[in-house]
Structure formats: C-alpha cells, structure tokens
Amino acid sequence: MKAIEVHHFVDLWGQAQKTPETSISIELISMNDNATKPASLKKKQLLVKVLACSISPGDVITVQGNMLVMHQPFPFVPGMDICGVIVDNNGSTQFQNGNVVVASNGMTPVGGMAEYMIVDETGAVIKPAGASNEEGASSSSAITARNAVMDHVKEGDRVLILGGSGGVGTAAIQIAKHHAKASLVVASSTQSDLCKELGADQVINYQSEDWWAIKEFQEDKFDVLIDTVGGGNFYKRATEVLKTGKQGGSFVAVTGDDPHPDCTTVWKTIKFFANLPCRPVYTKMKAGTLPKYVLLLPYGEAEGRKEVLGWMQAGSLKIKLDADSPLPFTSEGVRKAFLKVGSGHAHGKVVVQIAEE
User: Fold this and answer.
1) Over the stretch 67-107, which tens digit does the pLDDT of each residue have?
2) HSE of 34 in the Cβ direction (CA atoms, 13 Å)?
3) Distance from C-alpha of 53 to C-alpha of 356, rounded to nearest angstrom
4) Short-list 198, 154, 163, 192, CA closest to 319
5) Element (H, E) at 247
6) How far, in Å, are 73, 139, 206, 227, 322 from residue 53 at the CA level?
7) In whole angstroms, what is the distance from residue 107 CA to residue 84 CA?
C-alpha cells in the first residue's frame, strides 16, 4: 500500500516561519509506494480503507518530536484522525464491512496517512450521511471544542474565544452560540466574515486591537475565555476582562502557555508535567481575585465523537476546512499540510484526501 513515512523529526514551526515557498526535504517526509499493509487484527479492531486524514496540533508535535513520550520508531506513518470504509470488521457486532466510519487512533498518534489503518471499534462512529469524508475526518477538533464549551459555558454566559478561525475555534463559536446558548460570543481573529458566519456576535482583529484593553470588556467582563492559541501570556492579560473565579469566571486553556513545548528529554518531560497542576491549584486558592484556570486535557473522545457527529447530522455544526483543503495524498501535499498546521495560521481544518469512496 501507499503510506507517508516520517524518517526524521521535522521542525515544522521553524520551517513555517521561513518563506512561503519553503518545503520539507523529501528525506524527512516521503511517500512509500510499497509499505506493508496492516493485516493482524486483535479483538475489537477494524481494518479501514482510509478516505481522508486530518492534521491536528498533536500530529505536529509528534512529527516535530517535541514530546519524548510520543516518540515513534522511524520510519513511522503520521496522522490519527481519519474517515474510511471498513474492509474487515473482524467479526464486529456493531459494524459491517462497507460502513463509512469516523475514527481516531486515540493516544497513539500514528497510522492515518496511509491507504489502510487499524482502529479500535470503540473509537469508531458511523459518518453522518450529510457530511463529506473530509469533514468527518476533520471533526476531532470539534470534540475538543465541545469539551471546552459544554463543560464550562452556561446559558447566558459572555464568552471570548481566542483563535476563532482555527479548527477548534470555528467549532467552539458554533457550539457556544447554538448549544450552550451563550448570550454573547466574541472571537479574536483576522477572519471576521468567517467568524460572524459561524455565529460570533463580535470579532476583534488582534493585529490592530488588543482585546484585553477594550474598555467595554473591562467594564462588563466575560464569564469564560477559551484560549485555542496559547503563548502570549494570555492568562495574565485575561484578568483585565474576565471575572474572578468567585464570580464564576473561567480561563479554559485548550493550548498551554507554550504552544511548542520542549519535552525532548526525561528531565524536561518531568518538569513540564510537574508544572501542569500548579496554575489550576493556585487560581483556585486565589478565586477571590483571579479567574479560575482550567487546563483542558483530552477526555471523553468516544462520547464526544458521537455527540459532535450527531450535531453535524442535524446541521447545527459545520466543520470548516482551510481554503487549501483537501490536499492531495502526495509527498508534497502532505508536507504542505503539516507546514500549514505548524505555522499556526490555518483557517479551519487541514485535511488530506487519501482516496475516493
């Protein structure tokens, strides 16, 4: 089968900061036309012919090698969020051969950029008929948005979403407005028309205006701020426009203080994970003066996938794809996909079309 293989870790962030023409060396990420097709299935595993595979920040971290605990032996096939056709249901009572499913490789972020992939049936859901294969594969970020919004935003809340035009942000705007019933949804983005189309009441262009310095927000503060960008010392700035924890204010960090963490050694990894609970604990102790800090870690993937796909089926959630997507299943197409996500400037989800149904 054909499969994309990563032969060495790639500094996607560094590459993306160079000229737009910059590409990734073929020695780092390339197509193998004779990769071994997965064959040995364990209990409750499915063999899927991949139709589309989306790229997330987690995939970028894996390809860059930032996280020691996520290191894979070279060469490895990147990608974990897919849409595909079941070709071997392995005796499953839930799925039949020919079912088109949306699935993920869970906490093992590899295998998706190939013609075939093995997935656990517990992580697979039938794709809604009204959604394209590319939209199905790109729905994983909406699960993150669902957790950020539905577990922290109450009806009538005032919500500010940083990074409103990204994969998580575009879904968060819709979920906050249409499902959590927020009274006001403000997005920080350069893509005003896109955010308003999705339901944002107001859009702040961060290139020309500092959201934390807007008098209107300082006087009538937000109940929840959802940060999908990371970096920029946003929590400290958020205290200007976000209610305190005692008043019900929450800062939900989808991405941490450093969107490009360096956990490449055991010591750096220990230090990184040891620091994770510090701010949530501290802000809980200081709830009278500081907003509550919520570090959003992955959870409820199976339940969230079912709910998100249900919203897609009902038409109350649209998965927005980046203007360049879908990209072709070629060495150059996949390298371009990773560079786009690594740059932090994708507007919507970046997805690769692996095959037609």
Assistant:
1) 888 888 899 999 999 999 999 999 999 999 999 999 998 76
2) 0
3) 12
4) 198
5) none
6) 21, 10, 31, 25, 14
7) 19
